[in-house]
Amino acid sequence: MAVLNHRKVAVIGCGFVGAASAFALMESGLFSEMVLIDANKEKAEGEALDISHGLPFAKPMNIYAGDYKDIADAYVIVVTAGSGQKPGETRLDLVKKNVGIFKSIIPQIAEVNKDAIMLIVANPVDILTYAARQLSGYPENRVFGSGTTLDTARLKYLLGRHLEVDSRSVHAFIIGEHGDSEIAAWSSANVSGIPLNDFCEMRGHFEHDASMKAIAENVKNSAYEIIEKKGATYYGIAMSVKRICEAIVRDEKTILPVSSIQHNNHGISDVALSMPAIVGKDGVECTVPISLNDAEIEALRASADTLKNVIKDVL
Fold this sequence. Notes:
Blueprint: E1 5-12, H1 16-28, E2 33-37, H2 41-52, E3 62-65, E4 74-79, H3 95-112, E5 117-120, H4 125-136, E6 143-145, H5 149-163, E7 170-171, E8 174-175, E9 183-184, E10 190-191, E11 194-195, H6 196-202, H7 208-230, H8 235-249, E12 254-256, E13 259-261, E14 272-274, E15 277-280, E16 283-287, H9 294-314
Parallel strand pairs: 1-2, 1-4, 2-3, 4-5, 5-6
Antiparallel strand pairs: 7-10, 8-9, 10-11, 12-15, 13-14, 15-16
Helix pairs in contact: 1-8, 3-4, 5-7
């Protein structure tokens, strides 16, 4: 393996998500060097300058716009490049445009750095994670997507509001596609070890099915609602990127629902989708077998089939 600078991160793509992620990573103090790359070099230069001017209020960091040769020793490469999701457009509508962009940029990354951890954030993240693995030749554990990390945070936030309890005490996952076929894994959800329905009743909520359906729909439609109101979503995903990078840099072995290529997981193989996984210094260590009921397993397989059908058309 090449000698990597474990305090260096690269952000490819300086649109709303890339710029917000760069800002969140600067604030985190995880890295001492950050290179920003964008097809529009001036945009990358502007973002680097803007963030750099606040460094007297933060931790020392070298932030600059660069080219692919500048990422040769980067430990983490965050790929946000791609066309953004437009109002009324599904994540899967983006697929052909963004696979085309990946066919241009991923080989350029792999040419200069074969040993980094590549975190895919651009949408549709599951398809693009699969494409990045194919196009880069990276080991599977070192190329994965942000997946349903943000969807899961949205679920925890909404459950926390519903139950009037700290969302960090809520343990629940959104799994499958980061998109319309995602699944709320209710059967394994709990609040600090107390089964979710028991905790709901303790807090005076008894309409479990109606509440679960409403909250799951709210999670699924959150991005569409935000895009409709302000044109794009970027703060939540930037915080998710920071959280995943923390797990990598600190070798936390944190369990996060990232998108990775599956191998006979509930009968699902050869597709990237989100399941809880242990994330540390080498990327994805392994997926974690959470308990799912028959309906959830069936929905997960349907989600995988949705993604596989798209992959067939574009790769």
